[in-house]
DNA sequence: CTTGACCCTCACGTCGCGTGAGGCCGGAGA
DNA sequence: TCTCCGGCCTCACGCGACGTGAGGGTCAAG
């Protein structure tokens, strides 16, 4: 009985089942000469002998260490190769990959937090950075209102990489702008004047630390500042009537750039 | 000055320097339509506008999370995609990969230990498994003598996956064989007899738990048992003269298989 | 004689670029 | 004006370890 399974060799399927590797992998290892069957049937079927199985088993063992096929070939065929050394090198690589993945995971956690909370600072940090008039509920409320917009995404992406120091700079820029706007209104700067237009540009630049803002979006924002009680309260807290004056200088600037502020949309 | 850098776009090299990505990556992202420049010069140079830079920056951010380019495309272009969900899925994948790598690292540590110490058991475990006649220095001495042979490699590979239970089974098989050999010698079993040959085969099978043993290697091993004081002491401790008798039954069996025991080599 | 499970050999696809090859473009110095 | 050098362009193959068909032979059983 020369073709009883096991008497002179196992077929790819049988080896595959025994060693838990795919048939294709066996073909591949045969192709590249890493582990070839010593026998073939007349029909060309691969037959793996007991000795072949030995080698295959060693291949499987070293493959599980993450060694590349060339490395495995070296370990199996080159008696001068330093196997424990190769294993230790492999171990170091694995440790490094774990490190990288852990850093990546931490970065992901930060981004997830930024998307969900809008800000990575604790309530105390927020008050310390943005001042006592800051309400720590605002980020969560902003997320509920705008969380499904592209701009929220962009804002979250930026927030992920900002700590207290960066936020302090943003807050300083914003309060500086508020002061400049109030002073200009006090000084009687007229909408459409070069000075007013410069302030509008400055607002766009400062605001870009949250997300990129087009002129049209800025127009919508100006109207929102005026209409939304919370925003209006903020600007009127700087100077009475500032929200309205700001809308007027934005509208005038938009008109100067060929935009009709009454039909402008957010998109 | 329509071609001042920055006025209407940056070239690939400038973008590459700013964002810390390779020029080839920019080409690639252009090819697959992930992030294309809005402009080209007459000569075909890519020119990235401020808006293009925005998009590129977002690509870079999400690429750092390990998201695939198709995933990034979805995040950037499909407003219905659940970004925090995608990030959390990515986070879970990362955690799983860390897990796998940590298991892989543990496996590597075991293999390294097996190669270096020859045995993963503590001295106490060794004595518990192999009995009071066992000397815990033996594995280290064996490594010094045979550590550069293929057989040591195979032995170490097997050792890496053996705990006390498996070693107990091996030890039992060995002591059972020793007893059977001693009994047979006592009973006057003759070298070359079927019973002696069966014992030789049994020895090869038992020994295969250390590493695969050919008949020729077995012949050499028989001579070593007789010549090496330590091995001889062990077998003579079972029965006086057992080492010599064992060599004789191995020789006889080898001759029956067409091997000249006096010229057989380990290879 | 057919069926269905198993085997064979191509040969392309994967993923995100790296790495040339071969050649055009643009600003600066001789 | 010529030349030089650095930067840009478009192919197009390579990588690593197979996955996944396509198209077709083989083998034991009914």
From TrEMBL, chains A, B:
Entry keyword annotation includes Repressor: yes
Keywords annotated in UniProt: DNA-binding, Repressor, Transcription, Transcription regulation
Classification via Pfam families: MerR_1, TipAS
Protein name, as recorded: DNA-binding transcriptional MerR regulator
Gene3D superfamilies xrefs: 1.10.1660.10, Antibiotic binding domain of TipA-like multidrug resistance regulators
InterPro entries: DNA-bd_dom_put_sf, MerR-type_HTH_dom, MerR_fam, TipA-like_antibiotic-bd, TipAS_dom
Residues in coiled coil: none
Any one GO MF annotation of this record: DNA binding
Organism of derivation: Actinorugispora endophytica
Lineage, uppermost ranks: Bacteria, Bacillati, Actinomycetota, Actinomycetes, Streptosporangiales
Domain HTH merR-type positions: 9-78
Keyword Ribosomal protein set for record: no
